[in-house]
Amino acid sequence: MATEYLEHKLALLPDRPGCYLMKDINAKIIYVGKAKNLKHRVRSYFKSSHEGKTAKLVSEIRDFETIITSTDKEAFLLEITLIQKHQPYFNIKLKKGTGYPYIKITNERDPQMMITGQVKKDGGYYFGPYPNVYAAEGTLHFLQKVYPLRRCKGNLGRPCLYYHMGQCLGACFQEVPVATYDRQIAKIKSFLNGNVSSVKKSLQQKMATASKNLKFERAAELRDQVHYIEQTVEKQKIISHDHTPRDLFNYYVDKGWISIQVFFIRQARLMKREKRIFPCINTPEEELASFILQFYNRKNNVLPREILVPQAVDRSTLAQILHVPLRTPQRGQKRDLLQMAQENAKLVLLEKFRLMELDNRQTVEAQKQIFAALDLPYGHVIESFDHSHIQGMDPVSAMVSFVDGKPQKSNYRKYKIKNELEEHNGADEAANTREVIYRRYSRLLKEKKPLPDLILMDGGLIELRVVLDVLHNELGIHIPVAGMVKDNHHNTSHLIVGEQGLNVPLDPKSEGFYLLQRIQDEVHRFVISYHRKTHSKNALSSQLESIKGVGPKTRIKLLKNYGSVRKIKEAPVEDLMKLGVSQTVAQTIKLSLSTTPIRKIGS
To answer: What are the GIY-YIG domain coordinates in residue numbering (predicted)?
Structure first.
């Protein structure tokens, strides 16, 4: 049910294409969508019944804004830009890079083959993606033996080792004709596009000839190459006969979630599969279209020559944006493969539901209990801070992030305390708190990144008051803050809030209290492990400083290669000398450290 304020805004919506941005009670953008008709689409959120994640989204909407575009294509592109900029909680979001390896043929006078994860517009030929780097390496090594290009740096003035092994055309000592490279590259592309039968037949003939001429080592090498084709290429089921590189997308929707399957078809075979699960807010076809655009908007991704999608997807608009034809097969193997992708998507989603049933009570429901105890509307992101030092030495801080009750380790942060003011030292918890809170949230404001829904401080009233002062008076922002207080046994006791440190009632036997313990234990573990590492390095550096003949460059080399006193003590003098340390200094280091007891760094 829309509020009076939202009803007035709904009445002003235009019958135009564009994008809409849904906001929560804190004016944070929680969902971005596109529509051919903004008036019909946005009104449907408040005038229709919903379930699952859509119902949850609608319950959190307190405001919205719209951006009108001239065409559906512009709305598509604007939606992807806004999602990448604001990273809304309810949207499908993909990482910027694919992380997949490709085989590349460079665009040079003397081209070479290599494995790369960086796809650039440099005129090179990229083939992939491969399921992992080992699969790419296997294919690369095969091609370098059968269809060699250049393996060395070139212009060496003498034949390189690879030339003698038959894996280099000789750019090291002679000018290789461009036509020779072109013939090799044509054969490589033919093989990578699935034409392997001719290669296998040629290798078998060469193997027979080598065996007949009593060249058994060469015959064995050729036999291994044939074996590679049989085990890694022919063993895979052929699913196409036109050798067109294509990607296939299909989905399955249930209970407000969409499961998406992506099949990569290369060499006429299913090379790789990718699976993703997201909350489904709009129609599944629109969610899939948004996913496809983000999928190909990532770095290091090579577009195929054809994309296969289900019938209801807006193929024409996507084709205009991607400049690749999108088709829906009606019969044959491609249609069967599309159906198989949907069946796989269904199986993955059903498995997800089983795991969610087990996990939900300890995560989302537990986090809801914490927000309810604090009398706050439910928020998705909690950030927690803790400090560590030894009598003020090597002070550090750390932050952990929990999203819907689960640790989000990619958002964890470490901080070395600077304490630039002379009257402060590393043991001043208030100064440490002030510094790290200001650094964290001034940066989020500067970079226009979303703020958390709750901050939990590992500490008492002093830290709590410092955080409130920094947020309100220095940064001008209002984020709910609570302090996690421990008892005499260093166990989680209770929460406090406000300038007076009021006690927050939370049942010690509830899932919310257990989540609070997990957050406090996790931030303590994270900061202690970081402090041990920092203190250990600083202690080692100071020990090395006292050794005669060990300067800054030598210390850096030793720290980088060994990292601890024990490892340096155990290293032979010869290994130290390999780092560029003279024999006299290496012996001095060993002698000095052997007379110094190794101290264990405690918490």
So the answer is: 15-92
